[in-house]
Design brief:
By secondary structure, the protein is an alpha+beta fold. It contains 3 helices and 7 strands.
Length: 150
């Protein structure tokens, strides 16, 4: 199992952060190695990633199910690998203090099956970078006020 979290302070209201983060399609494209995603319904989407892991090109598909929308502070979701044996969960939380918002992204991934022992060290190495990059990219988008509302 690998779990990581990253926080960033955004000089704006919690409502503005929520306006952006509550729309999954806004930040799906910011996940490192993102290739595409398909929105199945309001809670469910299928994401495809493509990247190189130690010289091997790998395509991974996963299902993301939103399990909680608690406006304006919390989004929780669960992950399930469609092409690989893994599960996970994550959340974005936002807390406003003195006109600025602390946003935290947390992701947990559990690799299963026979390949779990091989992939767990890779996941533990990659997950902190992915979580940090995603959280920082979202914060930059919100700071630049380029908040696309789809």
């Amino acid at each position: 199992m690998a779990i990581t979290s990253h926080s960033v302070i955004i000089p704006t209201s919690v409502e503005k952060v929520w306006e952006y983060v509550s729309r999954i399609e806004n930040w799906a494209v910011m996940v490192p190695a993102y290739k595409e995603h398909e929105q199945i319904d309001e809670q469910k989407s299928v994401w495809t990633f493509e990247g190189n892991i130690k010289g091997f090109k790998k395509t991974v598909k996963m299902e993301l199910n939103v399990t909680e929308f608690h406006e304006p502070s919390t989004i929780r979701f669960e992950l399930e690998g469609l092409t690989d044996n893994f599960t996970g969960s994550g959340k974005f939380t936002a807390e406003e203090t003195a006109g600025q918002t602390t946003m935290t992204g947390t992701i947990e991934v559990n690799a299963g099956g026979l390949t779990g022992a091989v992939f767990t060290p890779v996941i533990k190495m990659v997950l902190p970078k992915v979580t940090t990059r995603l959280t920082e990219k979202i914060a930059r988008q919100i700071k630049q006020e380029k908040v696309p509302v789809l």
